[in-house]
Amino acid sequence: MEFLALHQQIKQQTDDALSQLMSMLPAHAPRLQAAMRHALLAGGKRMRPLLVHLIGDTLDVPRRDLLTISMAIECIHAYSLVHDDLPAMDDDDLRRGVPTCHIAFDEATAILAGDALQTLAFTVLADYPMSELGDAQRAKLVSVLAKSAGYLGMCGGQAIDLAATGESISVAALTQLHQLKTGALLCACAEMVTLVCEDLADDSRQALIEFARLMGLAFQVQDDILDVEGNAELIGKPLGSDEGHGKNTFPALLGMDSAKRELASLHESALQALESLPYNTDHLAAFSELMVKRDH
Amino acid sequence: MEFLALHQQIKQQTDDALSQLMSMLPAHAPRLQAAMRHALLAGGKRMRPLLVHLIGDTLDVPRRDLLTISMAIECIHAYSLVHDDLPAMDDDDLRRGVPTCHIAFDEATAILAGDALQTLAFTVLADYPMSELGDAQRAKLVSVLAKSAGYLGMCGGQAIDLAATGESISVAALTQLHQLKTGALLCACAEMVTLVCEDLADDSRQALIEFARLMGLAFQVQDDILDVEGNAELIGKPLGSDEGHGKNTFPALLGMDSAKRELASLHESALQALESLPYNTDHLAAFSELMVKRDH
């Protein structure tokens, strides 16, 4: 299948599965349920499910395992966006062109929706359909996802980000920050898929995780670039929000030209990681192209 | 061992294990780490670990499984208190006589500390030492804990509580609210322990979960009573906060005398559930006494 059609198909399947996940919740707390649905289904690009499926297809992992892993990751990703947007955090009113959760609902509901979405990620990993091998790996999948989402990953990165806001930090520190805040969850995509692939050579596993790690950084560098010279309408929020929030960014620390060279260099390293693999990696190469050249 | 000494021992072991859990986090986000420690170690009564250990000792479950389960439950409990205390939620400045997390630190750090503590609960269940049987049950333990903590349990109950605040609801609705908000996690204590007990008769399992469910409700009724006529110094926060917050309570809906009769009736039912068990349940009976007669 052509890459763009494949992306569209994976996005649709993920959206459908997440929508069904929401529909299965009983109605006892309708406002909370609506807020969770809003957070989970308000137009994400589903980059992480795409990565999960592309790696999984490369390794011949059963599709139902990939869908379950994707759903869990999207629950974590959606919860993190809801909490990051809160007034006490980044205080953002718009995301993907629609009101953020605490604007569409209220702050208490947004906090709870984030909390319940995080929990739901672990329910999905513990309970949702998997192949026999996937079923045997549930506890390890929980371990990897929790590590990437908590203090050792995303939450730790967000805390470092908050501490660094308004301060001037080094490129190395900014890289570590994004490695935790964005990179850890992308690495988890690769690591989780490799857990449900029998007999994968360890260097192939490492190369796939390294690819995901580089993609996480590239995603963030491009995010910083788009916040300066992107199209606000396409991005779905006003430009310049990083500078307005006193955030450290790659263009601000390196200059725009060097930030773009850094992006190209990350892309190059990612393609090298793919070349070491004994598989057809055309779709993963197309994915890397999408990540560094995206306009929203 | 005498009950009070046993309670003290379990509390101390839980505190030590949680303190060690915090010490093992690397220092990359020191403020977040300090906030997590504050939330986890600021003087809880460890009622849930006590229940876990008492049921586990009754069923001869290995102590290391009980400690791992207790740590995970306390991470969930601590996170829920941090988020419930936030300005957008119950807006409480004091808990157990010490400043709440967002007062001791700041709101963003408190949100993140709660988030990271929730994640940590699942890391503990996935990674911490367990017996062979416990190890084989990790995914089921995650399933039970997540169900009790998320939309189907604690988060759902908190959302119903928020919606009911300032409204007048029925006793049945208040009971359902507390069943989700407080009861679900106490039921999970019993359910998780029974998962690591081989060959437990199903009716014994049900009786233990029913005991925990009744204890959850009794705990809440006594909480409501203490908020009216307790000792503010012992409780560690001002009296009358429920009324001040427009919360529905059993004394407000039933009158104080009927609320106390309800508490006695829940206690009686709990003791009946214990009598159906083919074990020595003296310690569990002492636990129920502690729950309904506690003064803080």
Automatic annotation (TrEMBL), chains A, B:
It comes from Alteromonas salexigens. Keywords: Isoprene biosynthesis, Magnesium, Metal-binding, Transferase. Pfam families: polyprenyl_synt. This is Polyprenyl synthetase family protein. Its cofactor is Mg(2+). InterPro entries: Isoprenoid_synthase_dom_sf, Polyprenyl_synt, Polyprenyl_synt_CS, Prenyl_diphosphate_synthase. Belongs to the FPP/GGPP synthase family.
